[in-house]
Design brief:
This protein has two domains: about 15-315, 2-Layer Sandwich (BirA Bifunctional Protein, domain 2); about 325-415, Rossmann fold (3-Layer(aba) Sandwich), CATH 3.40.50.800. Helices cover about 40% and strands about 25% of the residues. It is built from 14 helices and 17 strands. It has helices at about 15-30, 45-55, 80-90, 130-150, 160-170, 175-185, 190-200, 205-215, 230-245, 305-315, 335-350, 365-370, 385, 410-415; strands spanning about 35, 45, 65, 70-75, 95-105, 120-130, 155-160, 215-220, 250, 260-270, 280-285, 300-305, 325-330, 355, 375-380, 390-395, 400-405. A hairpin with a 5-residue loop joins strand 16 and strand 17 (about 400-405). The two termini are about 45 Å apart. Bound molecules: adenosine-5'-triphosphate (ATP) and magnesium ion. The site of magnesium ion (MG) has 4 residues, from strand 11. Magnesium ion (MG) binds near residues 186, 258, 279 and 282.
């Protein structure tokens, strides 16, 4: 037997139906907020990702040379591809551009619960102006999506990475060392962050001040303690979020996103029920388009880890039952089989989910198949029924049977 590659999954019909259901809730919500869907290729020129995240990213993604000798990578995320698309195709479009996407991403990571080599992100980006309402709109959509899925237990934390960047550069951390240090702080690897700062001659008071700053988290009351432009921006953001009805939001200045291109507001959503891999959404504002050869433009966005948020819903006991068929049509004998095809076709044309026995089973076995397909009704096609232009309809849950005229069958089954 050939196994599927490590870190990948197969989705069987029940699971796929569940995934499509939740996906459609997300899509619906994004559309309610005025976002429009886009799609980009599953693979890109590797340069797109190294430009954004540095050459080391290649160790973490699926990169290869194609037969023409081009350096190609499977996309590890969709923000860079969407911004590339913006620069290539949409740079003259009216703003703000409000885009969303759903698709698979690939990362060469150690697989574990909630961490796969192929996984799905549902994300959104706004390309517009650096106003607090733009960031608020992105955060409000992220929260609305999470609520729409029905997740109850989650924590939404908002911070501002600009303040930390400024603090670090004021302490003497050079621009080229910033990304690595922020990555350590993001992963809460404080010992490693300390040695990096020591190497840049940051004093121990300075280092402690950085750690204290990243530990600053709590309710809105903390807002008044943040100085400067960033403080004013955050205060404005939080007051707009309130108008948007986003209430359960925490201010957390330790919200550090590892990636280099985040510049201002950053936010994360965690589902505590997930344990170690609990981050279900990450986002913030960034400057990426000029790196990709476009003009400098303010953008903000987020990505929901679709697989992880489904795991969190499962942990909370959210149950989803597959829809099943409206009707399963079965013939009592070979002579009535042709009529079963005629009848199932009539039901399908009327928009009912209907199936028919393809295995030439005996009635009792075919009835078992009808139950396994979770059909609401079985339509039994027998010679005596047909003589009266009728079929026998069995309600599967109660076992009740009655003869229904074929002319009334559709309306009877639709009721
Ligand atoms: P982490 O810190 O957990 O590695 P990240 O910060 O790299 O995640 P992002 O690039 O912001 O994650 O991706 C957005 C979301 O995608 C994450 O919050 C997470 O829910 C999900 N995600 C990231 N990597 C994986 C993966 N390998 N498998 C499943 N989901 C993932
Ligand atoms: Mg992270």
């Amino acid at each position: 037997m050939i196994q599927r590659p490590r870190g990948t999954r197969d989705f069987l019909p029940d699971e796929m139906e569940r995934r499509r259901h939740y996906e459609s809730l997300l899509r619906e919500t994004a559309q309610l907020y005025g976002f429009r869907e886009v799609a980009t290729p599953m693979f890109e020129n590797t340069e797109l990702f190294t430009t954004k995240s540095g050459p080391n990213i290649v160790d973490e993604i699926y990169s290869f040379q194609d037969k023409g000798g081009r350096e190609i990578s499977l996309r590890p995320e969709l923000t860079a591809p969407v911004m590339r698309m913006f620069v290539n195709e949409l740079s003259n479009a009216p703003r703000p551009l409000k885009l969303f996407y759903f698709g698979q991403c690939f990362r060469y990571e150690r697989p574990q619960s909630g961490r796969y080599r192929e996984f799905f992100q549902f994300g959104a980006e706004i390309i517009g102006a650096p106003t607090a309402e733009t960031d608020a709109e992105a955060i409000a959509l992220a929260e609305a999506m999470i609520k729409r899925l029905g997740l109850k237990n989650y924590v939404l934390r908002v911070g501002h990475i600009g303040i930390l960047r400024e603090k670090l550069s004021g302490l003497g951390v050079p621009q080229e060392g910033m990304a690595e240090l922020l990555q350590k702080l993001d992963k809460k690897l404080y010992d490693e962050a300390r040695s990096l700062m020591e190497a840049y001659d940051v004093s121990s008071e300075g280092i402690n001040a950085v750690f204290e700053f990243t530990a600053l988290s709590g309710g809105k009351d903390l807002l008044s303690r943040i100085e400067g432009e960033a403080g004013a921006y955050l205060r404005e953001l939080f007051s707009i979020l309130e108008l948007y009805g986003v209430e359960a939001v925490q201010l957390d200045l330790g919200t550090v996103r590892g990636l280099d291109y985040y510049t201002g507001v950053v936010f994360e959503v965690e589902a505590p029920s997930l344990g170690a891999e609990k981050q279900v959404c990450g986002g913030g504002s960034y400057t990426l388009s000029e790196l990709l050869g476009g003009e400098s433009v303010f953008s903000t966005g987020f990505a929901i880890g679709f697989d992880r948020i489904l795991l969190a819903l499962e942990k909370e006991g959210a149950n989803f039952s597959p829809q099943g068929l409206d009707a399963y049509v079965l013939a009592t004998a070979n002579e009535t089989r042709p009529d079963s095809f005629r009848i199932v076709t009539m039901l399908r044309k009327a928009g009912l989910r209907a199936d028919v026995d393809l295995m030439r089973r005996k009635l009792s076995k075919a009835m078992k198949q009808a139950a396994a397909s979770r059909a609401r009704y079985a339509v039994i096609v027998g010679a005596r029924d047909l003589a009266e232009n009728a079929g026998t309809v069995r309600e599967m849950s109660s076992g009740e049977q009655r003869r229904v005229s074929l002319d009334e069958l559709v309306s009877y089954l639709s009721a």
